[in-house]
Amino acid sequence: MIFTSFEFVAFFGLVLLLRSGMKNFAAEKWLLLIASWLFYMSWNPPFVLLLIFTSGLDFFVGRWLEQSTVQRTRRLLLIASLVANLGILAFFKYTNFLLESWHGLLASVGITFHPVVLNILLPAGISFFTFQSMSYTIDVYRREIPACRNLRDFLLFVAFFPQLVAGPIVRAADFLPQLLQRRRADWRDFESGLALFALGAFKKLVISDQIAGHVDLVFSQPGHYDALSLLLGSLGFGLQIYCDFSGYSDMAIGCARMMGYEFCLNFRMPYSSVSITEFWRRWHISLSTWLRDYLYISLGGNRRGPTTTQINLLLTMLLGGLWHGASWNFVIWGGLHGLALIVHKAWRSLLGKRAAAVDNSRLARLAGWMLTMAVVLVGWIFFRAVGLDNATTMLARIFTWETGGVRLLSPQIFLALALVAGAHLCVSKNGDWIAWIVERPMAVRVAAYTALLMGILCLGARESAPFIYFQF
Amino acid sequence: MSRGRQLLVVLTAVVVLSSVLNHAIIRWLDIRTDVIDRGKINPETAGPPILVTGSSLTFFGVSWRKISASLQRPIVTRSVGGASPCELEPLLREVPEAGRLMLGVSIFDLNENNLSDARAPLVPFAQTWNDLRATHTDWTASKRILWMYPLPWLQHVFPLAGRSSAVMVNAREKVRALRPRPPAAEPESRLAFKTDEDSGHPEKLSDWDCGRVARNVSQLAASAFAQGRFSGPKSQALARILARAPRTEPTLLLVLPVSPPYREAFAHPAAQAAFEQAIAEAQSSDPKLRVLRLDQHPALQSAEVFWDLVHLNDDGRRIATGLVMDHLSAPPAR
Question: Model confidence over B179-194: pLDDT tens digits?
Answer without folding.
Answer: 765 555 444 445 666 7
